[in-house]
């Protein structure tokens, strides 16, 4: 498989998902970017804009095992990881796997689950394995978690701790559709929801092949320095209590490689990095109280940092064309 084929597979996936999610190509591209990097997605948005449908559309577009976990205050870690049940015939405890043992896992309204239950996902998301009764059990490949939360409603919720937030590769939002797009949604869903007729257009083996190729996308030294500068500036910004860790730099680096591959390129350009910086970094930084009083948002700070830094004008590698 080469990078032209990756673009073809990406276009097939995007076109299939767009049968359900109207007018959100950029968001879909960023979701696939995370998937191709073996990263997990946090979708933060108001109810009714298609968070769950996006997750289901991605799952149905790929011939993969899919399970949905609904976040509620009474959800227990065993409801996710599984539990040992005594078998009277064998007179032994037998482990029954939980829904985490799926290739694509949707955790709907993750912030409604208690911190103890949220923490059950930490090892799975960070190490692609879980530990049960002192035994480590690997999870299937590819393993992909999509979590959703409503950022407006806080009653009865448990905000995700920083360690949990940092496990998500990107944080994306769908936003409201335009008037024309909303009319199209009404017509599409008038008789039946298109999610029910969606068919797979890619196999898990193809996705794994793409994931194994992403690291071969060329990133020029000047662009690597640009990524480090962006992340480094989050640690010095007066509006931020906490800047991004080096994991933010690594994720932005990998994301730019995957995003370039989706566009059919084997090299990264500055626009790839700029297009992804907000989604990769906004959930890894913490605003000061004074900044919140000024109605600043994490994305505003990152956009200001991007605007203040000089963009590399030319890549030195002979494979890439000079940037205007």
Description of the molecule:
A five-stranded parallel β-sheet has the order 3-6-9-1-10. Strands 2-11 form a two-stranded parallel sheet. The chain folds into two domains: 1-213, 3-Layer(aba) Sandwich (Rossmann fold), CATH 3.40.50; 217-315, Orthogonal Bundle (Helicase, Ruva Protein, domain 3), CATH 1.10.8. The longest helix is centred in the C-terminal third of the chain and has 17 residues, at 246-262. Residues 315-324 have low confidence and may be disordered. It is an alpha/beta fold and 324 residues long. It starts with a helix and ends in a 16-residue tail after the last helix. It has helices at residues 3-17, 25-36, 51-61, 77-81, 115-127, 162-165, 179-188, 204-213, 221-234, 246-262, 270-281, 289-293, 298-308, and strands spanning 40-44, 62-63, 66-70, 82-87, 92-97, 104-108, 129-132, 135-138, 144-149, 168-172, 202-203, 240-242, 286-287. Helix 9 (221-234) packs parallel to helix 11 (270-281), helix 10 crosses helix 11 and helix 11 runs antiparallel to helix 13 (298-308).
CATH-level-2 architecture of the largest domain: 3-Layer(aba) Sandwich
Runs in which pLDDT lies below 50 for 5 or more consecutive residues are 315-324
The total count of helices amounts to 13
- How many β strands by DSSP? 13
